[in-house]
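User: Fold this; tokens only.

Assistant: Input:
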Amino acid sequence: MQLVDIGANLTHESFHHDRDAVLARARAAGVLQMVVTGASAQGSEDALALALRHPGVLYATAGVHPHHAASYSAETDALLRDLARAPGVVAVGEAGLDYFRDFSPRPAQHFAFEQQLQIAMDTGKPLFAHQRDAHEDFIAIVKPLRHRLGRVVVHCFTGERRELFQCLDLDLDIGITGWICDERRGSHLVELAPSIPAARLMIETDAPYLLPRDLPRKPANRRNEPAFLAHVCAAIAHARGEHVQDLAASSTATAREFFGLPPAPV
């Protein structure tokens, strides 16, 4: 079974002491390629640097998460444009809106999101999008520009049925995490998973966050990592009523097409 984790925050400080071991465990679990999330100017540079140290296995996104939108400047924009054109960077983002935390003022979030949409349009790179508790504004910003954008994935989708179908109607791809494994807040995703076309569904861990709640043996540090993507894949496959091998194959094919990834090195 070959898997692609489309969203892993591998530059997070919790991985500094054992990152090579984390990558080895991922490979042993069938996770042969990972996209390292860039969520700030410095984080995007770090994501690319890490990806370049592991060619063919790690790739990077370059963007500014809405939490950091208040820091978005002309210098940030120029840096992201340079990074977006660099070998190893396969998408613009993580970009979008987050009204759950509101760590940045909403006007700043809108500005940073719109700037990154422009970068995606100018470079032709796909968009790795974030949205939490901001669906209406997210759709309102993306919809008028959809015909000028390439592929877009709504990373870590946690929305309800109406939100899912509005995203699908705009031809947006959907990323599902271990949120689906949480019976307290993710049970609705179990019901929605069968409605996502296979060619539009990708899977991710969002490591080190979102450790699957039903993981049989949880690490003592409660840190999520890409090796647990196989567990997430099995949960989604069960919800969809399909064999885990089939979902692994389809989600991997979708991810490689979306990000333009070559086959993983042997």
